[in-house]
Design goal:
single chain; 224 residues; mainly alpha; Arc Repressor Mutant, subunit A; 2 domains; 9 helices; 77% helix; elongated
């Protein structure tokens, strides 16, 4: 089993576990959609912070559960900030929780002597949430998440032939000549299809950003 298959298997297990914890919710379908949209974003960010696979899976679950608890009392106010920034704050705190748990396990297994020898207090070694520089990773993963969601929508909207040309040329990075030869069309048709589908993509990305802000809301409340 390769790494991609393992990640997909892990995400399925995490999804089942999380949904069982959300089974009392009347909006389980919405949370299933939320998980499917954002789990890769949260998971990849946790891994980039230095967590293991199992720790990153735990961050996914705990982050989404935190959103579930907080979201009902939220109000949408774009003057305060963005949903993207608020979600990152939640994920940052859940990552710190995992580092704290890891340190507690180390200490309980006899590492206190090494801690005293080094002269570094346990609490000093637990990362400050504000000190974990995840902004660049988060932005990259966020854009990738939006692109994937927009691509899924555009695939349903666009002319099938145009989407096929766009997929081969823009997504799979085939040369324009190879796409044209394979599909029996001109290079001009390939470029036109790419232009049209790209315009749809831009509209969908912008729509998704607005939808997520309005759907999930934002507040000044502390994420942790």
């Amino acid at each position: 089993m390769n790494s991609t298959e393992r990640r997909n298997q892990s995400s399925s297990a995490t999804r089942r576990s999380l949904l069982s914890r959300l089974k009392q919710s009347n909006a389980q379908e919405s949370w299933r959609e939320f998980f499917d949209t954002y789990w890769r974003l949260i998971y990849a960010t946790a891994l980039n912070a230095g967590l293991t696979d199992s720790e990153a899976q735990e961050v996914v679950q705990e982050s989404i559960l935190t959103v579930v608890k907080k979201i009902r009392s939220f109000r949408y106010d774009p003057a305060i900030g963005s949903f993207k920034g608020w979600l990152l704050t939640i994920v940052r705190w859940r990552i710190v929780d995992q580092f704290r748990k890891r340190q507690q396990q180390i200490d309980s297994s006899g590492a206190r002597r090494a801690t005293r020898t080094s002269g570094t207090a346990t609490l000093e070694r637990i990362p400050d949430p504000a000190a974990i520089n995840l902004d660049a990773v988060w932005e990259e993963e966020w854009q990738r998440t939006l692109f994937a969601a927009a691509l899924s929508r555009v695939k349903r909207q666009a002319n099938a032939r145009h989407y096929q040309m766009f997929d081969l040329y823009a997504v799979k990075s085939w040369s324009v000549d190879k796409v044209a030869e394979t599909l029996g069309v001109s290079t001009a048709q390939v470029r036109l299809a790419k232009h049209r589908v790209t315009a749809l993509m831009r509209r969908e990305v912008a729509r998704l950003e607005k939808e997520e802000e309005k759907r999930w809301g934002f507040t000044r409340a502390m994420a942790h």
